[in-house]
Each structure stands twice: as structure tokens, then as C-alpha cells.
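Sanity check

After download, print the first record. It should look like this:
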Amino acid sequence: MVELIDFSKKPSLLCDFVAEMRHVEIQGDRMRFRRNIERTGEIIAYEISKKLSYREQSIPSPLGMAEGLRLDQKVVIGTILRAGLPFHHGFLSYFDRAENAFVSAYRKYKDALRFDIHVEYIACPDLTDKVLILTDPMLATGSSMEMAYRALCTKGIPSELHIASVIASRPAIEYLENHLPKEQKITIWTAALDEALNEHSYIVPGLGDAGDLAYGEKL
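Expected C-alpha cells:
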């Protein structure tokens, strides 16, 4: 079962960050663009933390013992390179004791409109019975996310999966609902949900190429 959480339905500062990332004049400031992606990651990380399990613990303070809650699940933050790096940093700012995983999943074009997804690189700890937060700013078709998930699962099956994006498309949500394992507990988090893809499978209106906007155009 897949649960979708769309933050654009809940007005907050997150909506303002997304508006700046979309804006053709503001997004030209790479530093601000990266920071807005990072801040989006921080906010979604905090919201995901509310879904996790905690244990009660006695905490020694300078003036006595206090009762507190500590995270009781092991978290792995996984990221699709390269656009996901500032997003990853936002999550890591909050889940600062998390393990980390990286995977390269990219489009290899057959012609101007057709492509396959290729995975060439994986760096990942054992995922068995851990919480996997898989992040990518642009969830366009969903096929890269599926391939990244299946590649990472060669290192163990997580107890639950959280997929996080800045902007997701409706077709990507439907694709993941149909192609990810039905037995896996899955939550998809997105700061904005756009309805369409163009003929090149880019999100419309989207924001453009997040990797190029964050790090410069590639050859």
C-alpha cells in the first residue's frame, strides 16, 4: 500500500521555497536554489520523523533525571545522484546519525524521446529491517526511483520505505503504486504535485533540470 502526502495542500513556508525554486529569475541563483532544496529536505525529514518509533529513556541532566524519547529505528538516507545531493544534506541535518546510501540512476536515450534507466554505481549499508528514506528532488516518471529502490534492495530489504521529492508528477505516483512491491510499507512525500509530463518526460510546469540548476549544465 502506498500513502501519498502532498504538502502543497497545507500552506506553509515550504510553499514559498517551492515557488522560489520554480521562478525562472530566482532559480538562477545556484546557492539559493541549493539551499531551498536543502531546506525542503529538512522540513520533510521532520515530518517523516513523526511517523517513526521512539522509546522512553531516562536522561541524566545536570539537575536530575528527566524522562525523554529517543528514536528507536535505524534510518538509512538514500539518494539518487547528482541532483539529490543538496536534498540529501537537508535530511542528514535532521537524521544526523543515519547511515547513507548513494545510487546513480540516469536516463540513457535511444533517441530524442525514448530512453532506458541505467544504474551504474551503488554505495549502501545493510538495509535489513531499517527505515529507508529514498530522496530525489524530481519524481518525474517514477522509473528511476523504482530502479534505484530495487538496486539498493540487493543490500537487504528495509522494514519501511519513505520516498521524498520536491516536485512529483501524477504519472510517477501511479507508476510507483503499480510497480513497487505490494507487501512493502511505502509513503511518498512531496512538496508539490504536478499533473503532467511533456513529450520528453519532464514534469510540467516543474522547475527545469534540478541537477543543472544546482551544479551547472553538463555535457
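If your output differs, re-run the checksum step. Summary of this record's structure: The mean pLDDT is 93.
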